[in-house]
Sequence to fold (159 residues):
Amino acid sequence: MTYLDLNLRLPELLLMRLDKMGMGASLEARVPFLDHKFVQLAMSIPEKVITQGNESKHILKQAVRGLIPEDIIDRRKQGFGAPVREWFLGQSGEFAKRELTEFCDKTDFLDHAAVMNLIQSRRGSDTWLLLNFALWWKEFIEGGALSSSRQIESMVVME
Fold:
């Protein structure tokens, strides 16, 4: 499984995402755990030493105890979410409001008042889903040129 992760998932998915996110924020990202000597060492450690019981990354956690606070080492795994709520507080919110109003006027998929209520309640992730649907419909069903995607990219980078 590790072999497949290192040869397929890592370069085609994870490192590509890291590279794109770094470039999008004008940062050069580093991946210290991918140093070839470190990877050779890690691959030579038996799995039963790396994982003990149900605790994954056991050896790594032991190595950093005393350097990193215990509550961080022992906390549950959490994902990374895009700051969609914050995006919709700025220019992206106005853009979403315009696009969703236009979408509601042209179609009967969504109730305009409910959409405006959603936007005003600052539920960014829900607004994001509706905006994606509206822009998809505009591009692929209505057939309009989607220059708005470039507008979204520039607003997200600016905010």
